[in-house]
Design goal:
single chain; 0% strand
Length: 56
């Protein structure tokens, strides 16, 4: 099992690469969620503005 994690002496680079990919994917997911929240908030404000303008 130790040989598997050592990856023939390149374990640090192999597992580091996997770690960086996981980190980038996590950041991407968090960024997309924040962007979605912003877009939905903007659409909500736009909808309220249109509803308010239609009443007048």
């Amino acid at each position: 099992m130790t040989e598997f994690f050592a990856q023939g002496g390149f374990g640090f680079f192999v597992w580091g690469a996997y770690g960086m990919v996981a980190l980038v994917l996590l950041v991407e997911i968090l960024q997309l969620r924040a962007q979605r929240r912003t877009i939905l908030a903007r659409l909500g404000r736009l909808s309220r503005m249109r509803d308010f303008g239609a009443r007048e």
